[in-house]
Amino acid sequence: MTSIAASFVRNGKKIVAIGRNYVDHVKELNNAIPKEPFFFLKPTTSYLHSGGSVEIPKGIIAHHEIELGVVIGRGGRDISQANSGAHIAGYALAVDMTARNLQDEVKKKSLPWSAAKGFDTFTPISSFIPKSEVTDPQNLNLWLKINGEFKQNGNTSHMMFPIPRLIEHVSSIMTLEEGDLLLTGTPSGVGPISPGDTIECGLSDASTQKELAKLQFR
Amino acid sequence: MTSIAASFVRNGKKIVAIGRNYVDHVKELNNAIPKEPFFFLKPTTSYLHSGGSVEIPKGIIAHHEIELGVVIGRGGRDISQANSGAHIAGYALAVDMTARNLQDEVKKKSLPWSAAKGFDTFTPISSFIPKSEVTDPQNLNLWLKINGEFKQNGNTSHMMFPIPRLIEHVSSIMTLEEGDLLLTGTPSGVGPISPGDTIECGLSDASTQKELAKLQFR
Ligand SMILES: [Mg+2]
Ligand SMILES: [Mg+2]
Ligand SMILES: [Mg+2]
User: How far apart are CA A105 and CA A116, in angstroms?
Assistant: First the structure.
């Protein structure tokens, strides 16, 4: 039987997405550098698994944000940084699609980000990567190409708040459950995708170059 | 066997909460009247079922917002107002607890509302009310008392956007699934609860006075 964690796309209940966790990305959008992590929720109905197409609603400018996803194995609340590893089942490569023009509009009005982040198909996701396959989650390369051209190419060592700190912060507010996905923020290079574009993404171990995940969609 | 809808507290995946849907509440917080519905997401880990205590984190001012919850029975996307009734399994009485000082702070910074709305125990919820027991969901009284004193006392006929419009709007952005809960906004009278307060809430049919739900917590 598959665990809930391994089948998180079907059986997980929430996606907790961290904002502004890479300095270069914070700067490219002229945002303030956060003093502590912050997050928003995406619905699991936004998952787009095994290819397919991101649906861009009429009038929406849809930006790609390549991110490392952390899949929760053992649930908990008030998880300490020291214990956080025991709560991780594995990883996934994800794209946090963002309706940037709608997000800009709601930010001006101090309204929630939920719609701008939550459209169906706005979370393209790779297969589950068991944590045994990952030597060091803070030394992974993650990249995204549009029509063969690199747009994002980062390394998880550049996170301002590393994964244990993120798990500590989120679980101090809301209980994490098996199958929940934690998105850890995006490096710089975000930008729009257009209908017909081919988007390819990859995740690899930066020390061994071992490929951990690939993800392609239109 | 219980349906997913009837056991939505345990088995539902998302809570979609509408903001500013009663004019008197919009005015009491000096907010702008929205031209179309907007919403945020709450995690299902925030449910507080059958009594218990709302946990108020240190430094947080926790406001009560009494709301009618709509439990989705049949999932769907792009649901029309005309078809929306067929997607409803029933109702529940809910309190959308809100960390008001944290919400004010993130609104100033144009940040997401997710933490301010998402703490564990921040969605006290009644038992499931099958829709067969509800004559007209737009003519229900909902009230909240603290230590015996009325704080909120509204009627769902005063929603600016009625339930069919809310379902149409949300499902145009994200697929609704069986067991999802739609919170429909709060009437005026929101305010803080303090540790030790007894909070009692009720939902009744305004034409027959039939009581549909009661909810008590501390
Ligand atoms: Mg939000
Ligand atoms: Mg992101
Ligand atoms: Mg509310």
Answer: 9
B2, pLDDT greater than 80:
no
Q: Give the single-character DSSP code of A32.
A: P
State the pLDDT at residue A142: 98
Q: Is residue A1 included in any domain, yes or no?
A: no
Q: How many CB pairs under 8 A join A and B?
A: 97
Residue A46 belongs to what domain range?
Answer: 8-217
- Ligand nearest the Cα atom of residue B69: 3
- Residue B93 domain-assigned (yes or no): yes
DSSP H/E element including A165: helix A163-171
Distance A41 CA to ligand 1 centre (A): 6
Q: Do A175 and B113 touch (CB under 8 A)?
A: no
Question: Does A2 fall in a domain?
Answer: no
Mean pLDDT, all residues of chain B:
96
Match 């609704």 to its residue by tokens: B176
CATH code for the domain in which residue B40 is found: 3.90.850.10
Q: What is the pLDDT of residue A51?
A: 79
**Is B115 inside a domain boundary?**
yes
Q: Are B125 and B69 in contact (CB under 8 A)?
A: yes
Per-residue pLDDT for B33 more than 80? Answer: yes
Structurally, chain B folds into a number of domains equal to 1
Interface predicted TM-score of the whole assembly (ipTM), two decimals: 0.96
Q: From its phi and psi, is residue A113 left (phi > 0), alpha (psi between -120 and 50) or beta?
A: alpha
Residues of A with CB under 8 A from a CB of B: 13-14, 16, 19, 32, 38-46, 57, 77, 106-115, 118-120, 173-177
Over residues A141-190, the pLDDT tens digits come to 999 999 999 999 999 999 999 999 999 999 999 999 999 999 999 999 99
What letter represents residue A215's amino acid? Answer: L
Contact B107 A110 (CB under 8 A): yes
